Amino acid sequence: MHRRVLAGDRLVAAFLIGCVLFNYPLLSLFDRHTQIFGIPLVFAYVFFAWATVIAVMAWAVERRFK
Known about the structure:
The protein has 3 helices and 2 strands, in the order ααββα. With 66 residues, it is mostly helical. The chain is elongated. 3% of the residues are buried.
């Protein structure tokens, strides 16, 4: 039972981190005219933030079953 609650807490934390990462003040920091490998900086940031949130959620769910 304790592991289930802990996994739920981790998923809630991942959701809140996602809310912060995709909020306007933080997104505006990356809204520049620079490019990384030909991709605008804001798009690269959104992709990596999205991938990070998915990885944290997968980690939390996989830890639940071990």
